[in-house]
Amino acid sequence: MKPKIYIDGREGTTGLQIYERLGGRDDLELLLIDEDKRKDTEERRRFLNAADIVFLCLPDAAARDAVSLIENETTRVIDASTAHRTEPDWDYGFAELSKAHRAAIAASKRVANPGCHASGFISSVYPLVAREVVPADFAFTCSSLTGYSGGGKKMIAEYEDENRDPRHASERIYGLNLQHKHLPEMEYVCGLTQPPVFVPVVGDFYKGMATTVMLPSVDARRVQEALEAHYEGQRLVTVAPFGGDEPVIYANALAGKDSLRLIVCGHARQAIVTALFDNLGKGASGAAVQNMNIMLGLDEATGLTV
Ligand SMILES: NC(=O)C1=CN([C@@H]2O[C@H](COP(=O)(O)OP(=O)(O)OC[C@H]3O[C@@H](n4cnc5c(N)ncnc54)[C@H](OP(=O)(O)O)[C@@H]3O)[C@@H](O)[C@H]2O)C=CC1
Ligand SMILES: CC(=O)N[C@@H](CCC(=O)OP(=O)(O)O)C(=O)O
Asked: Which of 56, 66, 106, 244 is the most buried (most CB within 10 A)?
């Protein structure tokens, strides 16, 4: 019997990208809701309970409602929203962080898929804190550049409108209240004693992401060696040689891929780590499909672009 998969929110940016990654697979059965019933609570309840694995690609409140519609013990959930990422009875869906994370995902009924900016920060910082290269009470700062698809359908329409605000041609700094919605998961997953100072920036390009963590008074080579050791043998998270692959970093360099690459630059007294990936790949839909593959005991990269 093929596992039955339902994508709640399939018409959205993340949902469509998951559908594209699963559409051509013959090892899964996709349960497809009628277009005119996709927001009908009773019909969704039926689909949510008929599936073995459900992807939630919905706003936070709708994701919480969807979970409450599940009335059986067997349906397993991968939630792409922010709703459950710091809940102790959910597993955080970033398998490369540790063997324990991977094992928890494999056995989980409830997986919270990481936020895009959070994926960049956590992939850099979790190993450095776990390996005591940087203390958990370090005053982390981070800047993260993302394509506008990170803002979903509404932001895509805003950027692609022919009469758009001409200021969209320039980068836009946001999250200025320093309370971005990904801060709680960054702090929780890395075990930090304080949140980082986090500056997200959206640019005039569709997809791609470069999240840079600043590490004053830290030896850059030690950082690179720790990250390389931590991710040894991983296929979807890799570490560049010290100094990086190129003299400059373009935020869209890994657009279209489901992998993430860490690049360490600096010298003996200062380091920066940049996580380069696609906000819709390892930052959302690619990660969600990877988590599903792990939950089903399949090769984690099935259907993904490494
Ligand atoms: N875009 C990205 O890079 C990332 C997004 N995410 C998260 O994934 C989730 C989805 O985001 P994204 O795909 O960008 O958002 P979109 O706005 O592109 O899509 C959301 C979809 O959910 C549908 N929807 C809204 N409310 C309901 C409801 N009550 N019942 C059924 N369907 C509903 C919308 O319908 P309609 O089409 O009618 O508007 C839309 O199709 C969010 O929680 C987001 O924060 C996570 C990581 C990255
Ligand atoms: C450009 C833009 O607005 N990006 C979104 C992040 C998208 C994302 O990862 O959202 P989730 O937390 O729901 O997963 C933001 O910064 O709020």
From this structure: 56
